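Quick question about two entries, pasted in order.
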Amino acid sequence: MREAQSLFRAIKTLFCIIAILIVTLSFANPVLAQEVYWFPHTPLIDGDDVKGDNSAYDCPPPRAHLYKCMFHGYLYGHWNEEGSNTPDKRHEDDGKRIGGAITPRCPPSKPNCSDDEKQIVVVAVGFSNWTKEICADQGPGTYQLKTDPPDAAFCGGNPWSFYWKAHQSEDVNKHIVFVDCAYIGGIAWFWQNDQRPLSGMTKGMYSNCNDVLRAWPAYAGGPLDPSQVQVVLIKTSDSGERTSPNYPLIPLPHSQGKFTNCLSSSPFHACILMGEIAQITRNLFTPPPGDNYKPFNNVQQVFVHSRISGAYAKPIHGESPLNPEPYAYESGHAMKWLIQAQVDDVNNPGSSSFPGPLDYNRHDAPWMDWGAYMWAADTRVPCENCPIPGTANIDHPPLTWVQETSAHEPLPFEFCESGQQCDFQAVSGSGATQHPDNTHPSQCGRSKVADEMMYFFCNSPYTVPWFTASRAGCPHVQVPQNRCDERLLGPN
């Protein structure tokens, strides 16, 4: 009996010591106590129904305009588990393992470099919204190939951009070299192979990106080599303009029972976009025949991003036919289905017919998943009760996109002046071609995107090991507050 009592006291004492250590470490290290903001998968929601059948959501007027109500439950979640926001276990485990293996490397030109010279190269590819949000306003032959500091490496000092904020943060791994290969006009069609140069370019998109890497200035760790790229960030779409190479944008059917799956022959923009981005991911490893760029053979992770709101673009008025709603929202479906296609291809090799092979174990394409989810239904429904981007135990203001004064009408471009929070670029073009835009984010809107991305990469279990300086989190990066820095309010 005495021996049993002694054993019980010893076990009780051990548990007390462990509990004290856990509490002590939690207070001593704010990273350990930090709440995880982003779940492994980002949902497609503008409501709170996770079942995918709208059973928990009030869809009659005045909320009938919600995309959650317009697009019924069968369009949510994965093909095989409608409405689910739970990642596939194998895909999740592989993503964490792959992310944990991303480490700084020496450039090929200096294989015996010091630790300080080792790099993790992150490249963004995509279209105009992406270059504005990621870094600057990069057009063909501009910005990245300049060698005057701080243009190439630090986004020209643009304080609203994701790359600039990452460079300035003490929480972000200083070995990361952020490269912007997204371009104004770089819609998904141009990224299908390397034989489609943009107007003003002499080379295709991938070869041009190779040139950007090779021309990277020495003061910022250049030149860089395509083999150094370990992470790629993708965000693109097709515009819907009535000029070549665009095709007519066709929305997904809005009523249940009319749509079950994307096929290679599907005319819907979301299906076409899914196939295009699948091809972009394959192109990173294996350029199509005839292309002459050096592929990014060592890419470990790809993060795909859907669009911000397109609610203020009004193509019926002849304004902004640049992928307005519902296509901006539907791009999220394309991303989710693309990820599921890779999950299916890995779990059942060879089973995926469209959008084609994506198995990262066979080196068809890199492992991929969501980046930050940035869509919200303008100011009317800023994501009611949704678990992402806000959760019940984290004070996250609902994400909104502001561009109006009353009656949900877009502001005229002259009105986006000092003192107005204008989340979209007021005008596009210049001179005789100048016209209202309301599609591309302004400095204010770009800052919102950058804040969401900073928090995502600081908290995603797939990115924390390589993105953060501590390999554990970003204690100084705040939950996004859905507002602009006052310095950014002004003419756009």
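Here is the second entry:
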Amino acid sequence: MRPSMMKISFFMLITTLVHSALIGQGQTDTTDYRRILEYVRTNIPDVPIERVTLWTTSTALDKTHVAKDMIKSKSRDLVFPFDRSWLVMIDDNPEANFGHPVRWVFINADFSGHSEIYKKDFPPLIFSDGGKGKSIDFKCINLTPIKCVVSGSVFHPAYREYQFIDHRCKFAVLVSGGINSGSNYSRYPQNLKSMYNMLRIAGFPKSQIYVYYADGSTNLDCDNTDNDNNDNTGNDVTGGAIEADIRARIDGICATSNNRRDILVTYFTNHGSDDQGACLWDITADGLDDAELYSPAELAEDAANCAVLKHFMIHDQCYAGEFLTMAADGHHNNLVVYAAATASEVSWGREYMAQWEQNDITSTTINAMHQDVVTNGNLTSTAGMTEGTAGIGNHILAQECRETPWWRKYWYWILPFIFIPVLVIWARRGRNRQPG
């Protein structure tokens, strides 16, 4: 054999060995992903490949692995059915926020067949050892024309040069859970940044804007005061999206504020679960339990009779309309709730916030900002609003706080004590003037 041919053969041998080693360590040959794509295209009904994204693991898994629902209470675990299986998730609406309908299907590793198709609302959580072992990464793969949404953040630049003026009467709690690294889309930190900067323009002090994001370990430079557009060089995150911490913060503000002056904004940009509320961070990485879901009932309890003058609550998530009814239950007269979708709809991308941020928060009432989204936002879902007291959303967040005189809050109790004695005196005088 000629020396050149020997070099080529040796190179091919080394390449084969490296390839085999990588596969043995769980690294996937992209050929497998392409075969998955082709199998789905050919064998799974109603999959328009040009409009979906596909999710899967990095390698086929054996029968000791199980797939769990993201919401623990939803359904039983699914055991991988073949000797080695790919679990593939077909996301027919990749621009929608979770939980929106998706399809799971197990495909035999030899591509000879597949399981039934399971209708779900979230990506699965996969564990070895019958569900007791380590978790397995499950991610979107960039093989379809629509590319995967990646984690990260994009700074909204419109507010960089504004001169902030602090009004000590204003408080805000901003929440984005994201569930886990695979589902924490870039639009969520982007929404947090946009809302943060709008509130700073409106006079909310930096020290009174509390940001609860992901697991709390990721930097998020919301205000970009150093002008380098780099999250790693500044951090405005108060803590992780942990239910106990968020509830304690809202409770604390509601208990200690001035109900004749103070303003509170609570903003949620997140995934939502039908009939479950806002999805927070999956602390134990084994699915969301009740302590990792902020339900409408829990938030209603925390915000009930809140000692602020006005409370503006914005839900930019799937099934956000579930929170609307709390404003009209008689315990939230100072509350307005704005929702990006009805109680039966998913929300889509940044549609709601992208239109909201087009308004001038220094001169536009909150109700008008919401109505602009409804009228001009071209939303896929249906935005809604409920006021605890008619007209309280006709408020410009940037205006200075003025303490409401105590008697205005109780005028309907005071008036009878003024007018009833006047009427009695007038009636008696009338009788006295009558001829005897």
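Reply: The CA atoms of residues 136 and 184 lie 17 Å apart. The first helix runs from residue 3 to 24. Hope that helps.
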